[in-house]
Amino acid sequence: MEKYRRLFNPLFILFTGVILVSLFLHRCTFKSPSAPVWDVGFIIPLISEKYTMEKLADESDNIEIQGNQVLFNIDHELDPIEIGDYLKTNGAEKMTHIPLPNNAPDPFENMVNDILTIPDSIVVNNAVIKSGQVQVTINNQTDYGVRIDISIPSLNQNGSELPITLDISPGGYLNWFLPLDLVEFNAGGTNQIAYSAKATITWRTGNQGGNVEVNVNISDIFFQEITGTLNRVHLGLEDQSMEINLPDELEGFRIHSANLKLALRVGVQIPIIADLIIEAINPRNPGFPTLISFQDSITNVTGDGVMVDTLEFTNDLEVAGFINGQPEEIVVNGSLKIGDGQSTVTVVDTNTIKAKVLFKAPLTVTLPDYITETDPDTIEIDEDARERLRDNLMSVDLEVMIDNHLPLGASVSVFFDSTASDSATLYSPSYTPNLTIGPLQLDPAPVAGIPGLVTGPASSTLSIDLDKEQLELFERPEIFFGTRLQILGTAGQMVQVRPTDYIDITARLNAVVRTKIPENEEEEEGGGE
Predict the structure, then answer these.
(1) Contact assessment for residue 113 and residue 97, using Cβ atoms and an 8 Å cutoff
(2) Distance CA 21, CA 16 (A)
(3) What is the pTM of this model?
(4) Residue-wise pLDDT tens digits, 278-301
(5) What are the E-state strand segments in 390-501?
(6) pLDDT bracket for residue 209 (50, 70, 90)
(7) Alpha-helix runs per DSSP H in 250-348
(8) Hey, which of 54, 98, 181, 322 has its CA 20 to 30 A from 138?
(9) pLDDT, average across residues 409-422
(10) Is residue 108 predicted with pLDDT exceeding 80?
(11) Residue 439 to residue 410: CA distance in whole angstroms
């Protein structure tokens, strides 16, 4: 016990402590205090672009979005037809002989009744004549001075019958005109104009009788307003052409079926027959139909000016073949015929018929390979993000993610450059951009049904480690980028494209930076714009 106490006496403990401290200080060294170091993930968004079928439609006059369909569309407004230009008749002419006897007593008169028959393309009940004339020619083959009174009861002005009284000398000849502007014409629906010519002897140079020839000619009549029957009045159409504006992406496409209509805006209630010829000019694909003959009729036009889409060409496959020839131009000619020869209508000269030729085809198509290149856009990276990349970068990669929602395969390349702000430079074969990603090969999106409709996107992701030289590009405050899409076509298979189909491209820099101070959440998410 005495020995044990001596081992742990105070002097022994002090001596042992000094030895241990000396050994520890000899073997270890101490650094000055310092803050911890973190490696932080840092994301800089670069691209977020969606290339949709709607954008393609915006670039073409012949592609339109209607509901959930993408339509190939051609429509052309024909020049308005003024019906007043066709409310006319060449009129009628009749020679009447009024006999006067030899040694006629004094006074003496004789009257002859006759009929003028106007052409039956327009059968008039009543009308207002806009312009026209009555021409009366008299040849007096007697020795008598004669007064001729002509009565045409169906022609009235201001409620009164037109007065036609003419004097002619013995053996004389007279040619006389009367304008019919704003004269009322009441024909009673027979197209026959009854008239009478009365000759009264007023004086004489002898007693030799004979005939007084009276020729009545109603000509060049244009109607301001008419109630009656129109019998297929022919409204001729001059050749009218429309150019076909296809985007380059659709050159060589084939549609499955198409619809052809003639849309009419009619200002009068009247039956109409359309008889058109539509011709393809300079087709890009020989062997397809170049002419469509189109005839149809409207028998129940309301006359309220509403567009009527009832004239429809029924052979959709023939129309599709016509369009698949891809003409540079389409020419429309032919005629519209108004009236059916039975219905009584009221028409004024200001009535018009406006017509629009419409081709529509859902974009159920086969497509060839084609390439489209987007206009260069700008990436701006803020100063804070550039400083982090420059001063504290540990590693960085460029990640490109693509969703393909088209029923078509594609190849995508993305170009980054510090100076090429225009397409001619960025995509020039002789120019090498600072950084090119791709081409990335994309499978078509999955489809179902016939024709194939996309059921979901096909996705692809590419990640590339950037070296120092490539990284220097992103230390600039402004960068230009563009995308080249090569659509790989359908290899002859019919697919249906919808407005919601797209290719979506996202690109970002994934960087790891080292920092000596704690990072707040906002800074760790990145600083790109």
Answers:
(1) no
(2) 9
(3) 0.59
(4) 888 888 887 888 888 888 877 655
(5) 393-404, 410-417, 435-442, 447-448, 453-454, 458-465, 478-487, 495-496
(6) very high
(7) 316-324
(8) 181
(9) 87
(10) yes
(11) 10
